[in-house]
Amino acid sequence: MTDPLRVIGWFDAPDQQVPVHDPPHNGPCMVCGEPLAMPLKTVSLMYSENGPRKSYFYRAHSPCIDTPEKGFAADEKAFHTVDILMGA
Predict the structure, then answer these.
(1) Rounded distance, CA 54 to CA 41, Å?
(2) DSSP single-letter state for residue 15
(3) DSSP for 46-57, written as a single string
(4) How far apart are CA 82 and CA 85, in angstroms?
(5) Any idea what DSSP says for residue 40?
């Protein structure tokens, strides 16, 4: 498994302009694991009110998440990766 810090970034508060952790822009794609390159997308993860207070995000090649099915699968992988970061 890829080091979670290479694929997941986060903000500690809603008003932050710069992430507390910004994974490398040439790091691995969340989906395929290949180095990021254009075209790519940054995806925010939304948690329920009972979830973590941090705002998490990941980056992926656009073609790797270009359908709802691919996007949902990538989000599930990202949520699992955040769980690992949080020690769950």
Answers:
(1) 20
(2) T
(3) ---TTS-SSEEE
(4) 5
(5) E
Rounded-to-integer distance, Cα 5 and Cα 46, Å: 18
Q: Which two tokens stand for residue 29?
A: 């794609």
Residue carrying structure tokens 């705002």? 55
Closest CA to 44 of 19, 27, 63: 19
Number of H helices, E strands in the chain: 1, 3
Q: Hey, which residues does 58 pair with through a beta bridge?
A: 8, 43
What is the tens place of the pLDDT at every residue in 44-72?
997 766 666 788 999 999 999 999 999 99
* Residue 70 φ then ψ, to 5°: -65, -40
pTM: 0.88
